[in-house]
Write a structure and sequence with these properties.
Chains A, B: Pfam families: MiaE_2. Chains A, B: This is Ferritin-like fold-containing protein. 2 copies of one chain form a homodimer. Helices cover 84% and strands 0% of the residues of chain A. The first copy, chain A, is mostly helical and 214 residues long. In chain A, helix 2 runs antiparallel to helix 5, helix 4 crosses helix 8 and helix 7 crosses helix 8.
Amino acid sequence: MKESPGVVDLLGVLAYAELSAYARMTEDATTLAPSLADRAALSELAVTEYAHFRLLRDRLTEFGADPDEAMSPFVAALDAWHAQTRPADWLQALVKTYVGDGIALDFYREAARHLDPSIADLVDEVLVDEGRSQFAVEHVRAGIAADPVAGGRLALWARRLVGEALSQGQQVASARPELALLLVESAGEGATDISRLFARLTEAHGKRMAAMGI
Amino acid sequence: MKESPGVVDLLGVLAYAELSAYARMTEDATTLAPSLADRAALSELAVTEYAHFRLLRDRLTEFGADPDEAMSPFVAALDAWHAQTRPADWLQALVKTYVGDGIALDFYREAARHLDPSIADLVDEVLVDEGRSQFAVEHVRAGIAADPVAGGRLALWARRLVGEALSQGQQVASARPELALLLVESAGEGATDISRLFARLTEAHGKRMAAMGI
């Protein structure tokens, strides 16, 4: 099969993104959920992330790549992202799950857009929503209805998440040019295409914010 | 079906034991594993614990019990157990997974021994080993081979785990007499039967220690 040189990087960053999202969502569920039912609901989403990690790791192995080596260039940036965006309460945790991961997933999906269909399908499979959005949207809307001041705080929080995501993303892109190239190839040749790519990402982010009512 | 009054307690304590073991093993994997492969291996075991939690929670719901209410009497004792036995390194985490959970699981199995077969089968299913022992035994033996002094430290650690488990178990038993009754009924009527029960538990613990070579 035709393999773009950035493919192992893409699967590696995605695999570590899923593994670290699983760990972080588990921790948020355990320390921040207001009830055992909420804790179980967020844990359920975390376990789904782990299942996605497993698929990506196994695909890396099928490619003859060492999963640890493929993931390791991205550990520092993704750990830094989680350290910089540690939620202080349950609603912040849900906004992070939905908005923060949403932006990251949009980028991965764009990067996979013109790859071999077997890779693009795998990326689509691990990026499937699985009820995460609905869970976050319902709980965040209910939280803001109960405490309207929370809306303003969460809007600031979402802005910070976007800023941190772009900052870490930029570092990853400059350290891994082949991965960045996938995004540029996906966008097309010209500057107009790049700005269309950013317009798509911004629009998707705006839709998520609107869905939560913030 | 014939339901012993302690059954909801037994499924409740088991469900929270699985939910909290999942969270704790995920954290240990994330913070203590020496490699990404080890982190994934312990996370895999953690995710299995979550699947067991899901089975127990669903069975409680089928019984018409509220899972949150069934679990809540046991949250404090199990959280205290984890807080008192936070592993300081990877080998301590593995010994805790094997020895600490092993003792708890032996108690649950004894309590389920004379229950309705559909309950006893469910308890057997969620207590199945799933490779946890083999993973812990292999890694702990290798760790001691590489650093013989570690063996003595881990033996002390295992003793502390047993002490904390008995202390929390005693508190649970005195707060939930119907659950404690399941154990006594399982053992039989006389003092000899109770001492046989403890002999069985002690023997199982000794086997685990010997398997790890400590």
